Amino acid sequence: MYKTKFLGLRMEKEIYDIIDKVTHEEKLDKTSAIKILIQEGWKELRLKKALNEYQNGLVSVDRASKIAGLTISEMMKEIASHGIKSDETLEEYRKGIKILQKLEAR
Amino acid sequence: MKIAIDSCSVILLAKATVLEAVASNYDLLISDNVYKEILQGKDKKFIDALVTEKLVKDGKLKISKVKEAKIIKKLIRDFSLGIGEAETLAFVLGSQCEAISTDNKQGRKVAKIYNLNLIGSIDLIISLFKLKIIDNYKAISALKMLKEFGWFQDYLIDSALEEVKNV
Questions:
Q1: How many structural domains does chain B have?
Q2: Percentage of chain A with pLDDT > 90?
Q3: Containing H/E element for B83?
Q4: Taking 70 as the threshold, does the pLDDT of residue A106 lie above it?
Q5: Global pTM?
């Protein structure tokens, strides 16, 4: 089992410049800068996928939180901060109140 | 009356600081997986995780197992639900609870398909107010916290706020 693996890469100059910029700004060697960029990019990709699937009604919040690798509370915060709102309507809200009143009366 | 409640509603009610009042007034049931999901936030000291744990320890929030395992599998397969959401719905589909409280888009969709008694966090806050369990200051503060969190459409919270202010 390898602890590390070698990967040779050929890339566009713009991408190389990003790595170079992170290397200088964060005072890192290029390998560390690439690792950080991949990890951060991976987190963003997973979050984007989770938000997209939740917004389109393809998964529930708990399933989305697993895709994003977040707790449910964190996932809910991301959903809200990205402006994705509950689709509960006024009619449903009023119906909910009536259901509670009906059940309380039993 | 037993209400099955999912992680979303528990977390929102905790954020609105009314979870204890809701749990003291209604017979709330959570599944073991919903409990696990909420407690994921305990290490990060999330208020929802800490309050939920306390309510479970105090016996105000009950954890139960779903009797109908087949329903859970079907819900996960058919609607891409997480295990916690599927278990919460299964409580009502298997007649262990009479209503479900969920503010989860996908969970609400499934509850409507099966024509379940569906409620949400805003309904529970307004009901507490109507039952005089919380006063109008507490109800307004809870609704404003939900508005600030940004989960619901603003007009929905505004309607609830109007209802409280008009009493």
A1: 2
A2: 81
A3: helix B83-93
A4: no
A5: 0.91
